[in-house]
Amino acid sequence: MEKLIIEARVNEYATRTRNRNVPWLSAEIAADAIECRQAGASIVHFHGRDATGAPDNRFETCRDTILAIRASSDILIHPSLGYVTVASSFEERFGTVRRLSLEGATRPEIAPMDMGSVNVDLCDRASRFLRLPGSTYVNPTGMLVDLAKNFRAAGIKPSLVAWNVSFLRLIEAFRDGALLEGRLLVSLVLTDRIMIAGHPGTEQGLDAYLMFLPRDGSVLWAVTYIGGRLDALLDKIILAGGHVQIGLGDYPYVEDGCPRNAQLVEWVAERARALGRDIASPDEVRAMLGLRPRQPAAA
Questions:
Q1: Segment 260-271, tens digit of pLDDT
Q2: What is the CATH number of the domain that holds 99?
Q3: How far is CA 31 from CA 26, 65, 137, in A?
């Protein structure tokens, strides 16, 4: 079995209300990324944020974050495209990443492609009604075609995000149409608590995805669990050959004493080793995904 890839999802749009360790500013994200690398993470996923925690997807913010990370770490970098903070046009989604890709020092190795649109509704279980109906994450197929072509031209590996099985079917269609090449990195989204957009965070929810994934090794699949703990599924993911995406961006882990992102990574790494599976380094992930070799640091 291949070594385990651990991706640290350090902030997303998480507040500090429940866990004050969520990093927001570039220096904070970089410090977290370096800690996570030392703990066993090979990829860091971040969203640009400002001092108030508001989304900040400006080129300058992402540039400063990436440069700060690379000054002290070889961890692979996976920034956001902006999610619902930008309109759904191709240019607004790709503009920042295009500028980042023009220089080797700031080019991310990975960038996300959510392979379809999804209603990001929040359901209040107490009142049995939608707390926030009507929010839609729009990813038109035409825009995804443009992203796939431009990611390839920029030398960036797409992280293909699936919120349900229909997203996997579009991934298959893109591969059949030669829009995706090489080994694919697919993120399987599970959701819990107030978010009901993804598959439930249960074995059945995960199995429903796995039934539709190829068994020929052409896909590296990882699990993102938004709004829930990975405890009950972690052993299953590790032993089934999957990979883990975890961080305070998805769940605050208050009941564990409000840990830092690196502590979550360390927990996953220790459990994997206990189960007999080694942890992949960034260079090993490069080889697994067919990424270009790491560039030496400038003198």
A1: 999 999 999 999
A2: 3.20.20.70
A3: 9, 10, 30
Per the structure, the complete domain to which residue 149 belongs is given by 6-289
Q: Domain count of the chain?
A: 1
Per the DSSP assignment, residues forming a β-bridge with 191 are 200, 226
Phi, psi of 34 (to 5 degrees): -65, -40
CA atoms within 13 A on the CB side of 241: 11
pLDDT digits (tens, 9 = 90+) for 184-237: 999 999 998 777 788 999 999 999 999 999 989 999 999 999 999 999 999 999
Q: Give bridge partners of residue 185 from the DSSP assignment.
A: 159, 220
H or E stretch covering 223? strand 219-226
- Any domain includes 294: no
Which is nearest to 136 in space by CA: 191, 193, 83?
83
